[in-house]
Amino acid sequence: MAKLIIDDLHLSYGSNEILKGITATFAQGEIVALLGRSGSGKTTLLRSIAGLEEPKKGVISIGDQPVFDAAAGLNVPSEKRGLGLVFQSYALWPHKTVFENVAYGLRLRNVAKAELQQRVASVLDGVGLGHLGDRYPHQMSGGQQQRVALARALVYNPPVILLDEPLSNLDAKLREEARIWIRTLIKRMNLTAVFVTHDQVEAMAIADRIVLLDGGRIVQAGTPEQLYTEPVSLFASEFMGVNNQIKSRVQDKRGGYVRIELSGHPLWGKDRAGKGVSEDATGVIRLEQVEVVDGDGENRIPAELETSVYLGSHWEHVFRCGDQTLRAFGRPLAAGTHWLRLPPEQLWVF
Amino acid sequence: MNRATRIAVIVAMAIAVLAPIGLVVYQSFLDGPFFQPKTAFTLSAYEFVLDDEDFFDALYNSAVIALGMTLIAVPVGALLAFLMTRTDLPGRRWIEPVILVPMFVSSVVLAFGFVVSLGPAGFVTLWFKGVFGFVPWYLYSKTTLIVIAGLTHVPHVFLYTSSALRSLGSDVEEAARMTGAGPLRTALTVSLPMVMPNILYAAVLVFFLGFELFGLPLVLGDPEGILVLATYLYKLTNKLGTPSYQLMAVVVVAIICIALPLVALQRFLLRAANGYVSVKGKAAAQKPVSIGVWRWPAAAMITAWLLFTVVVPISGLVLRAFVSSWGEGVNLLDVLTLAHFRELMEFPNLTRGIVNTLLIASVGGALSVGVYTMLNLAAHRWQSGWTRLMDYLVLLPRAMPGLVAGLAIFWVFLFTPFLSPLRQTMIAIWVAYTLVWLAYGMRLVSGALLQIGPELEEAGRIVGASPGRVSRDLTIPLVKVGLFSSWLLIFVTFMREYSTGVYLLAPGTEVIGSLLVSLWGTGAVDLVTALSTVNIAMIGGGLLLMSLFGKRSHG
Predict the structure, then answer these.
(1) Confidence class of residue B281 from pLDDT cuts 50, 70 and 90?
(2) What is the domain partition of chain A in residue ranges?
(3) Is B461 in the A-facing interface, judged by CB distances under 8 Å?
(4) Is the pLDDT of residue B53 over 80?
(5) Which residues of B, range 469-488, sit inside 8 Å of A by Cβ?
(6) Tens-digit pLDDT profile for residues A272-300
(7) pLDDT band at B313 (very low <50, low <70, confident <90, very high)
(8) The domain B43-280+294-329: what is its CATH number?
(9) CA-closest candidate to residue B102, choices B166, B51, B151
(10) Residue A349's pLDDT is what?
(11) Lowest-pLDDT choice from A226-230, B350-354, B446-450
């Protein structure tokens, strides 16, 4: 069942168009990541859902109830939408204790004192801060503040919880832990969650589904696997992983594959953009798909090892082939020329 | 606040700002007081004023004095700011709080201080004459007036330049040093050019204040008949025997016409200056520049300035309040007395004035801060034509010096039927004070409001609070400290205010400032110095409270 529906949403600041027609559906119990670079409109979209920005066109519905409909002149104010939002800066009120920060939403809903006590305590327990209710926000670490912010957004059981770059203020180690516990918590409570991030690893780790945005439009939406293994465009492929790029020209086409070349060596790759013969094209292959092999063969090229970088779990090699550079992962290699295999099904031509 | 409340507040403010100005402009085109039944539209008042030599004399004097004091205050203030913020000057921590004293003491009180210390029969004058046998200065000349006005306005320049210099990161200076520039070259080619917009702003501000000057020329210019615009207006009241409202209105219109472009220019420069700030380097820990042996002449210069603008006038004034007589051959220790203060207590209007001043500063100040907060909340986080309108409206009262605003409010209370019973109450005074300090108070409060991030309020909306509840539960509690310190500043400001109450002075509306102006006219020097001393003590109390509070909120 669709919990949150966004239909053809447009928003601009003056003449600057930020959202250029966003349509998306979010199902009950689903965690969705809005992924994009800064300026892609992802935060603006989240704030529009929250009612903090006013789009100029489109419809937003929560459950069956429209909360924004430009054509009907409907714009339900933020406080009436009943959503939960975790701010990037956490936005904890410095003059209230942790307990009061969390309790405020319940007080506004006139919850009786005993029930309020019990609900705040249980949600604080849920985020692992049951014993810290008397503290003030500034007496807590960044990770704890983030948990308070989440507790504050969860306490009144919002139908949808929104998270704006929830992990960006944590250090690298904490972030990896937080990814897991946030996902576990949201899944356990069976909540619908929308979160904004610019980090594709974070998006893949937390989300059931990713909506990739660029320039105010949706580029691709799907499961993390779909976005990683079947990017629909050069942008999507670049955004989701670390790639080698081969600038070339289409030489030949056959059965869903096209032939390009890298400094004279022919390479077959999947036809992903329908480019015609002798059109400019870009071949893209993930670093981990490039294999170092023993000798010549189909889709193999010779390349000079330029340098190797030790990354702990593996080595990253940088090869030179004509005027192009290719990178690959692997075991330590001796200097000199090596053969590289670029599997045709993994080489995408856009 | 919802949209309707916001608009209502802005409209109320528009009426409060525009009514006095509208009434003045209307009056300036009449041939008699506006409340008389038979008045006709005419330009005769303009003809009279534009034919009056005294008016052009006053205009010329105002221009010369404003220019002269700017030329003195800007270099001294900028140099002072550089020395205090960027160098290893000895005793910086002690000097800093004293520098701002001339801003907090009312200029009419300072002027009295100069008279009793440096006037022809002043303490310092007599002492100098006794030692050297001659006196090389004459207090009542235009040059002296310019020098005194210039030196007492140094703090304004200091304040704006030093805060800019402080927000300038050391890194930009260190970068210049690394490239090979010496300390002096760094100051001249990097530090000062970077704060130039702020210095320029301070210069326009001082020039503008020069045009508004009232207390200093009233006391120091009068003996030689040196008139400036404000004192010309003040004298005009009695010039034709009967109150000549239309003539006063014309002068007021003239003053506003001069002031308004200057106010607009200040606003423009302030924006330019603030734009500059954001591109400055990181304001990390600053390392003072060593100026070597130059420290001592620099310290001596600052001490001389402080001695002249703070110590001499104020100590002279306080001393004068405690002696019965003085002159050549009089040992001051023999003539110490409390008689002037006892005399003060015998005049009910003077004691009432002291109580009223305390009330207007404390209760009135708090109410004014409340008004400024309401106005700020009305425009808070709202981009619309209404808030832009408000931005411009706030500037209008800035263009009215206290004397002028007091007069305009007096007329409004005279003119409006349901307000006229309140004319002779402190309410009229409070309205005038609140209006005169509108721009200043609005800036104080908005400074406090800008400290809180928008997401703190958005978070309130998200969890279900209406805009009104967000203001009540989140915004106001968060700015409480800021509002309290705004109140302290307004307290001191209302305490020292002297010109706004002049036209509103009546039994029941006495405040120390306006009483001082009128007492000075009667020549009651004993009472004037005693009352001034009381005023200084009250301001001192306010400043003490402020520094205690400042320490606590920083600790």
Answers:
(1) very low
(2) 2-234, 242-349
(3) yes
(4) yes
(5) 469, 473-474, 477-478, 480
(6) 888 888 889 999 999 999 999 988 888 99
(7) very high
(8) 1.10.3720.10
(9) B151
(10) 92
(11) B446-450
How many A×B Cβ pairs under 8 Å? 65
Report chain B residues whose CB lies below 8 A from the CB of A108: 463-465, 469
Domain boundaries, chain B: 1-33+338-555, 43-280+294-329
CA distances from A232 to A217, A220, A222, A227, A284 (A): 14, 7, 11, 8, 12
What dotted CATH number matches B1-33+338-555?
1.10.3720.10
Strand partners, A66: A61
A47 and A87 Cβ atoms separated by less than 8 Å: no
CATH architecture of A2-234: 3-Layer(aba) Sandwich (3.40)
Decide if pLDDT at B354 tops 80.
yes
pLDDT band for position B337 (cuts 50, 70, 90): confident
Token pair of A86 as six digits = 């975790």
Residue pLDDT, tens place only, A233-251:
999 999 998 999 999 999 9
Mutate to test the interface with A, among B2, B452, B462 (most CBs of A within 10 A): B462
Best of A62, A92, A93, A168 to disrupt the B interface by mutation (most B CBs within 10 Å)? A93
Query: Is B67's pLDDT higher than 50?
Result: yes
Residues 484-513 of B with CB under 8 A from A: none
Give CA angle at B551 (B545, B555), nearest 5°.
145
Q: What is the mean pLDDT of residues A74-88?
A: 91
The answer to whether domain A242-349 has CATH 3.40.50.2300 is no
Residue of B2, B458, B463 for testing the chain A interface, max A β-carbons within 10 Å: B463
> Can B1-33+338-555 and B43-280+294-329 be said to share one CATH topology?
yes
In the block, tokens 């003449």 appear at A15
Amino acid at site B525: V
Judging contacts by C-beta atoms under 8 Å, the chain B residues touching residue A52 are 458, 461-462
Q: Is A136 on the interface with B (CB under 8 A)?
A: no
E strand or H helix that includes residue A301: strand A300-310
Chain A contact set for B483 (CB, 8 A): none
Cβ distance of A91 and B459 shorter than 8 Å: yes
C-alpha distance from residue A79 to each of A48, A151, B449, B461 (Å): 13, 17, 22, 5
What's the pLDDT score for residue B239?
A: 64
Task: Output B342 or B334, whichever has higher pLDDT.
Answer: B342
- ipTM of the prediction: 0.80
B82, amino acid identity: F
Please list, in sequence order, all residues whose beta carbon lies within 8 angstroms of the beta carbon of residue A69, skipping any fewer than 6 positions away.
A59, A60
Which member of B459, B466, B477 has the closest CB to residue A87?
A: B459
Residues on chain A touching B461 (C-beta within 8 angstroms): 51-52, 77-79
